[in-house]
Design brief:
about 45% helix; about 10% strand; two-stranded parallel sheet; alpha/beta
Length: about 425
């Protein structure tokens, strides 16, 4: 039985369309900078918010109407949920999906039973992938929901929790490989601390480094060749997450000799919580060759937590895509809608409205970014702004030929610096508006 019987496949109808169940900007076959939109954006639907979100919050019970879900933790219900999920993904035309292990399959009374449940659901996931052609962008293990992880997983003070987490990741890696996943994500849901009075930070970070090396070794053992990704977040649920932002993650990876094995999966709402714009996080990762994938969402700046709203702001998506294009794209990563409906948007059709809006916003952002790049709207200004480094004393510094002695002599002879030039921020912001 169809989960969305009244909804046809979502089609591209163009910017003039007023059909709320059609794309206005996302034309998957349209070419931008030599690749189709589908190839550039690599959209992925998430399993956790989209098919496990209930609409509950600390102030109220679940609101979501999901006729295909009987509300039980049975394997049969989990398998039925898979079929509903793939119906939505297929009708949206999204090429990928992503999941946590506990999203798709219920936990059992023992690790063996839990693994058996995951295998049973993975069988249906594979059947649906083969039926629809939808692929797995990435898998990941939920190492934060169960009370056993109250002190963390790889950073827990309880060695047994570390061992259980390793067992869980081992199984999830096996399933991700079996399903053809092209990435595997580590998000340290509780890898951090609430209070330093009871925390040995160095020991915890050493354990996290060891855990990730074990994952790298096991991936080689089973022949998993997908990209490993780490997702930064500064806080929630702990006061301080060890993977707090792109800079912290890359510093950790260098310190523990893991940089060759990992890239970053960046999320807009997490960037905001870290006090950064998404453009900053993308640029920081990109300039160091560590831009892997993105979770496409946004926060509400009037609320101080991770609201995970669908992205609809063309400024945000244009800024994001300008950096992504600059660094050659996201593949094998993608644009993953780690976003949830508002509690008040409880009907099944709202899932389509939300994803259509997000896909259109990124398609529009892609076109805006490509147009600015074609015209050199910002690049030419930046190049000219740094022209003093292309010759003379600037070039000597960059080439390593200058030292403090030569720089002192240069300034003693010259007397004063060349006049500074205006940064023209307001003009550049106006220019960006031309393309919107």
């Amino acid at each position: 039985m169809a989960a969305f019987p009244d909804i046809e496949k979502i089609r591209y109808e163009g910017p003039e369309s007023r059909n709320p169940l059609a794309f206005r900007w996302y034309n998957e076959a349209e070419e931008v900078e030599g690749k189709t939109m589908k190839e550039h954006l690599r959209f992925s639907v998430v399993y956790w918010h989209t098919f496990r979100g209930t609409g509950s919050d600390p102030f109220g019970a679940a609101t979501m109407v999901r006729p295909w879900d009987d509300g039980s933790d049975s394997v049969e219900n989990a398998q039925n949920r898979v079929r509903a999920a793939f119906e939505l993904i297929e009708k949206l035309g999204a090429p990928y999906y992503a999941f946590h292990d506990r999203d798709v399959a219920p936990e059992g009374a023992t690790l063996a039973e839990t693994n058996k449940n995951l295998d049973a659901v993975a069988k249906v996931l594979k059947e649906e992938q083969e039926r629809t052609g939808v692929k797995l962008l990435w898998g990941t293990a939920n190492l934060f929901s169960n009370p056993r992880y109250m002190h963390g997983a790889a950073t827990s003070c309880n060695a047994d929790a570390f061992a259980f987490a390793a067992s869980q990741v081992k199984k999830c890696l096996e399933v991700t490989k079996e399903l053809g996943g092209v990435n595997y994500v580590f998000w340290g849901g509780r890898e951090g601390y609430q209070n330093l009075y009871n925390t040995d930070m160095k020991r915890e970070l050493d354990h996290l480094g060891r855990f990730l090396h074990m994952a790298v070794d096991y991936a080689k053992e089973i022949g998993f060749t997908g990209q490993f990704l780490i997702e930064p977040k500064p806080k929630e649920p702990t006061k301080h997450q060890y993977d707090s932002d792109a800079a912290a993650c890359l510093n950790f990876l260098r310190a523990y000799d893991l940089l060759d094995h990992f890239k970053l999966n960046l999320e807009t709402n997490h960037a905001t919580l870290a006090g950064h714009e998404m453009m900053h996080e993308l640029e920081y990762a990109g300039m160091q060759g560590a831009l892997g994938s993105i979770d496409a969402n946004t926060g509400d700046l009037l609320l101080g937590w991770d609201t995970d709203q669908f992205p609809t702001n063309f400024y945000l998506t244009a800024q994001s895509m300008s950096v992504i294009l600059k660094y050659g794209g996201l593949a094998p990563g993608g644009v993953n809608f780690d976003a949830k409906l508002r509690r008040e948007s409880f009907e099944p059709v709202d899932l389509f409205h939300a994803h259509i809006g997000g896909m259109d916003a990124f398609a529009r952002g892609l076109k805006i970014a490509a147009a600015m790049r074609k015209d050199g709207a910002l690049d030419d200004f930046v190049k000219q702004r740094y022209a003093s480094w292309d010759g003379g004393i600037g070039k000597e510094v960059e080439s390593g030929k200058a030292d403090f002695n030569t720089l002192e002599k240069y300034m003693l002879d010259k007397g004063e610096i060349a006049p500074n030039q205006s940064g023209r921020q307001e003009m550049l912001e106006n220019i960006v508006n031309w393309y919107l």
